[in-house]
Specification:
The complex is a heterodimer. Chain A is α+β, with helices and mostly antiparallel strands. Chain A is built from 10 helices and 8 strands. Chain A starts with a helix and ends with a strand. The chains are: A alpha+beta, B alpha/beta.
Chain lengths: ~270, ~425
Amino acid sequence: MKAIIFAVASLAGLGLAFGLLLAWASKKFHIEEDPRVVKIKDFLPGANCGACGLAGCASFAEALVENKTELAFCVACSGENKQKIAEVLGISSPDKDTQVKKIAVIACGGGTRCKNKFDYQGLEDCRSAVLYLGGHKECKYACVGQGTCIRVCPFDAIKMQPEGVPKVIGHKCRSCEKCIAVCPRNIIEMIQPKGKNKVYINCSSQDKGAQVMKNCKVGCIACGKCVKACPVKAITIENNLAKIDYAECIGCKKCIDVCPTKVICLI
Amino acid sequence: MLQTFPGGKHIHGFKDFSKDKQIVSLPLPSQVIIPLSQHTGKNSQLIVKQGDKVKTGQKIGESTGFISSCIHSSISGTVSKIAEYNHPVIGRCQSVVVDSDGNDELDSSIKSRQNVESLSNDKLREIVKETGIVGLGGAAFPTHVKLSPPKQIDTLIINGVECEPYLTCDFRLMLEKTKDILRGVLILKKILQTEAVYIGIEEDKPEAIRAMRNKIVQMKLPITVVPLKAKYPQGAEKQLIKAIVDREVPAGKLPLDVGVVVSNVGTVLAVYEAIYDGKPLYERVVTVTGKIVKEPANLRVRVGTKFSELIAYCGGTTQVPAKIIMGGPMMGLAQCSEDVPVIKGTSGILIFSEDELEKKNEQPCIRCGRCIDVCPMNMLPYALSICGENERFERASKYTPFDCMECGACTYVCPAQRRIVEYIRLIKAVLK
């Protein structure tokens, strides 16, 4: 019994002594942190995507307070939060441009609907897949579907579709462009649609129509129906591929209705 | 003790399938597909158009830069199409399709030369360039570039190693064309003005060593045959230089930085034929082999012949092929179709059945260090594989990934069956 009391008492004593020591140390060595940094950190997305060019959200917040960077460099932060950060900093909210959000789109809907040249058995990485005979898809513009963009997205905004091609979930995308940097096919692009209905061309093939038809069921064959259907002349055909001018597009969805291969999609 | 390089691994040769088969010419194909990219460097520029009549050996692609090469028609006939076609290395490539007229009529520019001795070195280089000769070992580096070194070279090494398992085309050439190869060596020696000339041959090809040595004694030539230890990758340029003259080529440098030029026996023979017979490089020897090939063979094939024709000539296969590889099993490239043309760099066509293929069951690295023992470039392949697996590319750059020549020795010995070379290729692609 004596031993137990002794053990409990000595441990409690040690605990008390160290507790007091720590309490004293935290007072003595206290570093004054700018309260604005703490507040700004709360408004930043916290994914440490690095799109601002700094190590992460914490260092971006510090840099903001020290006036070493600009709020506009954060592409991942929503407009609303930017407003709040601007209030904390006592500056005006960044320019209107960033109000319309940029969204990444993966311009290929091929996957299982695009023919394979061979069965790819290498590493599960798109950058590896394109090294072998230029990729295993018949279409040289097609997504190779190994999901490298999904793995680099810090916001979990890209999901693999059942067809074997990834798709960006529009409202989750924070425009950090990390996926663009890793895509070996260069088929991910940033678009800036204004309206509620955000349409995009889900194909990157610059092959001629007949070739596209041979390779893929959902490729742009440059038939030009969308060009005619568009009431605001926002669509043009360049290099056998339809292109939307987002400064003009009103999101009326008429192009979606006329497209024979269902290449034009909603985000 | 035989000369060799540190690292490497002896691999069973599997050369018995085709090593005793004499080189035979494949019957003239009815159609050839000649890609405009068959060499390291810039693509050739097309100088014929659809509907043109071409003759065997007529130039159809012009070299477009310093590191580039000419391309010639390999049969006589009509250019029926110029289109994108399957390519064994890059997948798709702009190609010239020539339909044969069956006459195999030689171009008028092809004439044999009598006065070879009197030709100047510049003229010889010019001929090598115009005949479109590239290294026939596999990488297809334009030979005229190798023969124009910016500084004095003191050693010429002829590569007769053929360390890739299965392949026997160089071996057969050394037996059958010994004299021509040696005369080709003399031409290279004259152009490069080197003192020392060595021919490196692995010890497991004693017939080739004997044939070469006998001929050299007979012709009284100042050439040394060096028997080398049979070890993979002895035939790699830098390893061959290390083994024969004990010089190390620094990272990122070329053999000529240490005063050496290395050339394959097939290339040397092509140079001989170009200089003496005026013949452009429009055919080469290809080994068609594998356990399931009915009659493995060493074939003299026109560039642009489809793989399917070679395989059919060898009697086809006893089982359904599971993998067709261009080149050897270590560094060759698996093909997705038999409808692919032979190019200048095609040294062999290797066919595997389903049960010969090993199912890879990749496990985590156990740091046993076997890959380090075999790496001929003294790298740390395991570290690169781990960096590649975890996408730590910046860290991988510390382990000199660009020294790797992708010989595959590390992947071959890995007990955890890791795809080390694939990881290194990924790292290189990302860091490039």
